[in-house]
Amino acid sequence: MSKTISILGATGSIGRQTLDVAEQLGLRVAALTANSNAERLEAQARKFRPRLAVLTDEAAAKDLAVRLADTDIRVLGGPEALLEAAVCPEADTVVTAVVGMVGLKPTLAAIREKKRIALANKETLVCAGQLVMDAADTYGAEIVPVDSEHSAIFQCLQGCADRREIKRLILTCSGGPFYGMMAEEVGKMTRADALCHPNWTMGPKITVDCATLMNKGLEVIEAMRLYRLPLEQVSVVIHRQSIVHSLVEYRDGAVLAQLGTPDMRLPIRYAMTWPHRADNPAEPLDLLACPPLTFAQPDRDVFPCLRLAEEAAEEGGTACAILNGANEEAVGLFLAEKIGFSDIPRLVEAARAAVAVQQDPSLEDILAADQAARQAVLARA
């Protein structure tokens, strides 16, 4: 069980909920980081009193240093300061709740220090899964997933000593706000429409990814890396109610599922307490009050991002880094209202065609592929 944590991405949705859980469990906080929200990070730092507070935006970090000048909290700025937060000696667990490729280097740094990684940054495994998992094996670091789907699978696999017993992993997907629409209707959806998720409250980038189904595609890749299974053993079903968080089908026909309310504090809490469980003050799932649980096939024609992710997973090498970098750039343009919703998969597919894939990549190859994909999107937007 964790005792002291560092949170990378403390002011975002996962970071804030992690602090709620930390307070309930009585965990100490060693380091907090964010991008540029000095006001919120100041409030968090004053409440939880970490040794270190980091803002990757250097101007915002200077503001934070002034705000916290009456405390003994050390304030650092710039992307490289994330690495110092990731290896903070006091912390036994690092919660990687930052969004995007920025989480890769700090995660690897924490792994080298044998920290437990409470992984909420899926891009780390999507882009560099083999490198990350190999490093975890080498240094003996634990990786415990925070994503609700991967936490569900992680829980359903407890007691499974032989991965050959697994027939397939079944990731559930709410379908997002545009489920059931035709392609022409989806193409007219706006930024405001895409940010209205039916079940979950999340940050804007991941909410848009849920609307395109790219989030589920990235989770397919993440599951392949985390559980070391091929694409054909990872499937997706639409489950609108977000009560069944994912399932594992075993070779004897048994199917285990993890159910719960759509509350990210549940998988966060499990990542903190694993291999144990702690009391939870939140209302538990009431089966008698649940709506009927339904399941359906995803529509890869209307939502091509899921197909694009599966194709990248099949190709391997830097294909997933290209996919992810292109998607991050395209979603950023959509959130800035510079492109339409249907332009996201169009630009991702164009970048995948434009950037050559390299097999058996190094970290430098992966970072270069990410940058090339972003440039390809900007050139075609």
From TrEMBL:
Pathway recorded for this protein: Isoprenoid biosynthesis; isopentenyl diphosphate biosynthesis via DXP pathway; isopentenyl diphosphate from 1-deoxy-D-xylulose 5-phosphate: step 1/6
Domain 1-deoxy-D-xylulose 5-phosphate reductoisomerase C-terminal: 143-227
Lineage: Bacteria, Bacillati, Bacillota, Clostridia, Eubacteriales
Family (UniProt): Belongs to the DXR family.
Residues the entry annotates as binding NADPH: 11-14, 37, 121, 123, 203
EC number: 1.1.1.267
Matching InterPro entries: DXP_reductoisomerase (IPR003821), DXP_reductoisomerase_C (IPR013644), DXP_reductoisomerase_N (IPR013512), DXPR_C (IPR026877), DXPR_C_sf (IPR036169), NAD(P)-bd_dom_sf (IPR036291)
Catalytic activity: 2-C-methyl-D-erythritol 4-phosphate + NADP(+) = 1-deoxy-D-xylulose 5-phosphate + NADPH + H(+)
GO terms for MF: 1-deoxy-D-xylulose-5-phosphate reductoisomerase activity
Positions that bind Mn(2+): 147, 149, 219
Reported cofactor(s): Mg(2+); Mn(2+)
Keywords (A to Z) from UniProt: Isoprene biosynthesis, Magnesium, Manganese, Metal-binding, NADP, Oxidoreductase
Keyword NADP appears in the UniProt entry: yes
Keyword Signal: no
The DXP reductoisomerase C-terminal domain, residue ranges: 259-375
Domain 1-deoxy-D-xylulose 5-phosphate reductoisomerase N-terminal: 5-129
Binding site for 1-deoxy-D-xylulose 5-phosphate: 122, 148-149, 174, 197, 215-216, 219
Purpose: Catalyzes the NADPH-dependent rearrangement and reduction of 1-deoxy-D-xylulose-5-phosphate (DXP) to 2-C-methyl-D-erythritol 4-phosphate (MEP).
Official protein name in the record: 1-deoxy-D-xylulose 5-phosphate reductoisomerase
